Amino acid sequence: MLELLLPPPVDPLWDLTEAYGADARPERLNLVLGVYRDQTGGTPVMAAVREAEIRLAERSASKEYRGLSGNTAFNRAMLSMVLGSGGAAERAVAVQTVAGSGALRLLADLICRTRPGTTVWISDPAYVNHRPILEAAGLTVRTYGWLDAEGRFDTEGMLRDLGRARRDDVVLLQGCCHNPTGVDPTAQAWEAVAELASEHGWVPFVDLAYHGLGDGLEADLAATRLFAERVPEMLVAVSCSKNFGLYSDRTGCAVVLGASRQSLRHVETALQNAARTLYSMPPEHGAAVVTAILEDDGLRDLWRAELDGMRARIEDNRRGLTAELTALGRGEQADVLARQKGMFSMLPLTPRQMLRLRSRFAIYGTTAGRINIAGIPAHRIPCLAQGVAAVLGEGTG
Fold first, then answer.
1. What letter would DSSP give residue 87?
2. How far apart, in whole angstroms, are the C-alpha atoms of residue 159 and residue 194?
3. Which helix (H) or strand (E) holds 259?
């Protein structure tokens, strides 16, 4: 049997991470994976998370199975955080998942179970795992534009492309801090997209992975809540990896909004059945931590303060990089980076230039030019800017 297995494609992000691990140069810099790092290059456990873990350990809660929907208190907390205090949460159902990727896959399976072969639209460029997840679930994928030639958000192009989406198609939207570009729609553009969804009848599918790291938690959730107000049905995949620092605990949530509670009568069971065949039920620890934080005023305030501090450091890193590039005579490229937000930025480099940045300066980003702004120690920003300026000076050949 194994002799029949053809060479599968490698995951580009983890392939680069392995190459970084094999690089013996002490000055090497890993900006590939979307992991928040502090000034020392480490990924700390948030203080609110650590305190919640201490309290949970002192209680010595049972390790008994939670059930196919996971931690129900966590699911309620996620609905409240994502949808706010309005009426949207009253017509929504949530199940805990194995991180945001698990939520994407469960919701993709729900789409396929409901309407096999449904077309799902994703941005171009998109998060590297969007297309594989959707196609693995048996869905058809098409793309809509995201950036114009100057690296700005292309409102007209996006609306033009999505104007071709049919009723009952699904449109996957990143709610904030777009991965990989770091470029988000304006509030006016989100309004136009929501109006288009309402008029044309396609279903928004929002991916929330970085809320709190762009313009602040409430601002980053504004687009998702806007869609919840404007459309009868919506899907939301929520990750707790970045804003709670629970990367290895794999904590997430799948949310489905319907026109009414009655329309949701089969949804939770369908999601549970999909989970049962994939991983049975999600791990408890991360969900218990998040629930303990969101249900305690003191821990919630501490978490919000830490999250704001992480966002401020990301903003400082981006400002530092743009300032260094401007000082090196690369003001035009710096202006493009300055408009971006969140953990990621797209360097104005070709794949060949990104390869030279890696080979000459030991700076690792994706071939497409994406780097993790949150992963740069402040004292390494000048080195990064010098490397980028150097390869830009060599041209695109």
1. S
2. 10
3. none
Phi, psi (rounded to 5 degrees) for 330: -115, 50
Strand partners for 235: 205, 256
Q: How far apart are CA 349 and CA 68, in angstroms?
A: 45
- The two tokens of residue 354 are 């990104």
pTM equals 0.95
Q: How many CA atoms lie within 13 A of 89 on its CB side?
A: 12
What is the DSSP secondary structure assignment for residue 344, as one 8-state letter?
Answer: E
Contact between residue 110 and residue 170 where contact means Cβ atoms under 8 Å apart = no
Q: Which residues of 69-98 are buried (b: 16+ CB within 10 A; e: fewer)?
A: bbbebbbebbbebbbbeeebbebbbbbbbb
Tokens 């530092």 map to which residue? 320
Locate tokens 């493009």: which residue?
336
For the stretch 124-156, pLDDT in tens is 999 999 999 999 999 999 999 999 988 899 999
Sign of CA pseudo-dihedral 62, 63, 66, 67 = negative
Task: Tell me how crowded residue 7 is: count the other CB atoms within 10 A of its CB.
Answer: 5
Task: Judge contact between 42 and 30, C-beta under 8 A.
Answer: no
Peptide bond into 348 cis (omega under 30): no
